[in-house]
Amino acid sequence: MITEDDRRYPKRPLVGVGALIFDGPRILMAQRGKQPLLGWWSLPGGALETGELLADAVRREVLEETGLQIEPLGVIEIFERIMRDSAGATEYHYVLIDYICRVTGGVLQAGDDVARVEWTRRRDLAKLQITEGTLGVIEKAFRLRGARTRACSVHTRVNAPFQSK
Fold first, then answer.
1. Which of 104, 19, 2 has the alpha carbon at shortest distance from 55?
2. Rounded CA gap, 35 and 88, in Å?
């Protein structure tokens, strides 16, 4: 498990996953319940654990934060979030991989790390205090949905431990 001490002033960037989950004309948004960016709205998601596959991480994080079971359909965006302190040092550095997902089960309810979760119409997104870069990813997903473009498929390769003969 990644602790707050691991996140602040990291030796290396941390990998995070996010989920773009749609319900007709609405997208699921999560209000952060912890630092960094306490109270800001973002996509459900979180940090990848060592040994965890990306698709499994997005499933786990969405379930923990929203109570929903999802299936990742494909990657829509990869971007970095670098937050510097007042002296200019890198306080947080994440490489974020956002997936288009569909709900397969569960009941929507705010879980760990989030204060609230809610379905939000595109026109209402401007009313929320949204984390930097997130609105651009959401707008891209809405455009892709409108164009009926398929997201790229998820490919994962896990190397097996070396076995001598």
1. 19
2. 18
CB 102 within 8 A of CB 141: no
Cα 119–Cα 101–Cα 156 angle in degrees, nearest 5: 155
- Do 25 and 121 meet the contact criterion of CB atoms below 8 Å apart? yes
Q: What is the pLDDT of residue 159?
A: 42
Domains of the chain: 4-146 (3.90.79.10)
With 0.90 as the threshold, say if the pTM is over it.
Answer: no
Predicted local distance difference test score (pLDDT) of residue 154: 42
Q: What is the pLDDT of residues 123-142, one digit of tens each?
A: 999 999 998 889 999 999 99
Which residues, including other chains, have CB under 8 Å from residue 83's CB and lie 6 or more apart? Answer: 36, 90, 91, 92, 93
Q: Where are the beta strands (DSSP E) in 24-157?
A: 26-32, 41-42, 45-47, 68-84, 90-106, 114-121
